[in-house]
């Protein structure tokens, strides 16, 4: 069990990680895919205009990487706080 | 029986025997197994099951055509970004915490965290969303049977109902989860084989995701030559504001869908819930990054061969789809040639192509052998039936758990709850079958409506329920009501099938859920200031859910023993407060 001070630190770290990842989430999808799609379309990648690529594939690939970073960092965070029982089953009522 | 039909039959029989065998092997005898597979599914299998559950006939059969033909490329990106982006929200904001909260259904979380009124609103929403979806899936099943096996579509739906009934009722969530993992395997193989083949053929690159870059320039050129707007050009079909509104509605809608959220309760642990979201998006992205390529390849193929071709000289795959009425050619100027230049595609022109044929026709366009065509048909059925069974489970658990057990007979034994759950599922299948045979005729609009409703009703109460301890029960019920009434009202007001009024501020019915969601959030934030705060105990449970490690309080809550203070925790205020969750199960609905 974590004490009160540890809990606050853990939650703060978690919120910071989430905020950073969600900002990237918004920048890639709503930013690169929609708001800035026209200027980005002037650049091409493998024959695909960049803004169009972000809207159709780049955002999906980024989403996947964001979740991967999240699960990896959360595992590290748990380990740092000495959490060992995280694979333990949480019971259902 | 043609060669194609024979192969379709062979693949359908093999794959379906396999699904039913899996359901039989994992049959269940307790409610935890029936509703949440006993919570013991490993993350990769759970991720594959989420992917199959969530990718329906619409993702498999329609999406590529929707992007390429009716949305002309760029505008179709709302489906790609919107539907996958919701998983980022799910993975970080909802899944781990809901898993730790440890209940069966979304309404149950709402009932525990807020109160019974809120739970009832949630039950109604969950039922509406699920029935609408399931109707679409069932009619999809009928169409695949009809087109590939020559069976009457009514009989196709009946066969589909019988199969879903067998494995859903027998295996419950446990059977469905393993069946869906198998169905994912079938559907992704069926999707990738023709996509790789057509990419090799047109671009000389086996990776469709990269290969489609090779034809985009030509496709843009072809469209411009025909007087159409370029495929990759932005905002030709929708404005920037509508792109944002629709994308957001689909993202938050995905994160609020009850049949997706319930999947995270089947994960083994909190950590497994996080990994399940990762695996799910990985499996989904295999299809979702290929779909835009398939769409572009198909449109390229059609536009480079068909316009200017004589009405009697069209290729064989074209003729066979014309026979079943999914491609229409109207030689309006009677010159014997299909004219697209300057007029475009779609209703009122010489060439109309149904969105649904693109994926199913890909193997034929690429000239692949009959067994592949059969495999694609089996994949389409897998996509439709896996989603249907997941939705039926949400329906039966809402009825049996949130209505029967909680409100009608809290003393019901385990065996009795299971019987009620199975009866509810049987009844739901009959209704779904009826809706599948007699589709309401406005399925596409109502599906959009369901997504908007999920975003406008569920996402804010789930999110604030976890991240804001002081969100009150009255505020939650008010927020959901405001979100639903506003969204539903606007959609009914503008949809042509209902009142058909003009759009207000050009906001589309598919995107209005985003505004409904913002209103819901604001309502909760404001009303919470003036209504009784959640009990100390509930606030403590909500806080404990945020931290890792075993919390006695959360375990006691999940096991339903919180009310008697058995965990040795402070219970002051418990039982005295209208929003106290510990009353939910035992003291009945009245307050």
TrEMBL record, chain A:
Signal peptide: none annotated. Residues 7-83 form the Sodium symporter small subunit domain. InterPro entries: Na_symporter_ssu. The chain crosses the membrane at residues 17-37, 43-72. It holds the Pfam family DUF4212. Keywords: Membrane, Transmembrane, Transmembrane helix. This is DUF4212 domain-containing protein.
TrEMBL record, chain B:
Residues 567-591 are annotated as: Disordered. One of its GO terms (molecular function) is transmembrane transporter activity. Gene3D superfamilies: Sodium/glucose cotransporter. The chain crosses the membrane at residues 6-24, 45-68, 74-98, 118-135, 155-172, 184-203, 243-265, 277-297, 372-397, 418-437, 443-467, 474-495, 507-530. The keyword Magnesium does not apply. It is found in: Membrane. Keywords: Membrane, Transmembrane, Transmembrane helix, Transport. One of its GO terms (cellular component) is plasma membrane. Residues 580-591 have a biased composition (Basic and acidic residues). It is a multi-pass membrane protein. Belongs to the sodium:solute symporter (SSF) (TC 2.A.21) family. This is Cation acetate symporter.
